[in-house]
Amino acid sequence: MFMGSYDHSLDAKGRVIIPSKFRETLGQRFVIAKSLDPCLCVYDSAAWERFEQKLARLPYNTSQQRQIVRFFMSTAEMVEPDKQGRILIPQKLRAHAHIEKNVILMGVGARIEIWDPETFEASGFSDDINEIAGELLGNGFEI
Question: Confidence band (pLDDT; 50, 70, 90) for 126?
Fold first, then answer.
């Protein structure tokens, strides 16, 4: 499980350091892919395989299935960190997430999200968090 949030910057080549706490769980090879949100997701190999299997179980005869598979699979990249713990974020993925220089890497359970800080702030996710929590978790949910 991934938790926590880290602020980093891309270097001139488009690489970012994956925090050591995340690398320990991710292993030597992992996948970076687009998210439905304007961010990127990083999955360890096992989580990516489960995700691929879910996509494969969708009925192929619908255009929606083909579109969603193309959305995720066509730009997903298997990556390996270098000796400094950096990975290259391909330009097509940086463009999807509006990433230019600074990033936030945040653990969100089974995956890591990589956000451009301004895009994350503009998403306004916390504006309605109490309403969202009440709707999705119910009144009896306790941490």
Answer: low
Three-state secondary structure of 63-131: HHHHHHHHHHHCCCEEECCCCCCEEECCHHHHHHCCCCCEEEEEECECCEEEECHHHHHHCCCCCCHHH
- As a whole number, mean pLDDT of residues 41-63 equals 92
Work out the percent of the chain whose per-residue pLDDT is above 70.
94
CA distances, 32 to each of 63, 66, 139, 143 (Å): 24, 20, 35, 30
Q: Could you write out the DSSP letters of every residue in 4-64?
A: -EEEEE--TTSEEEPPHHHHHHH-S-EEEEE-SSSSEEEEEHHHHHHHHHHHHTS-TTSHH
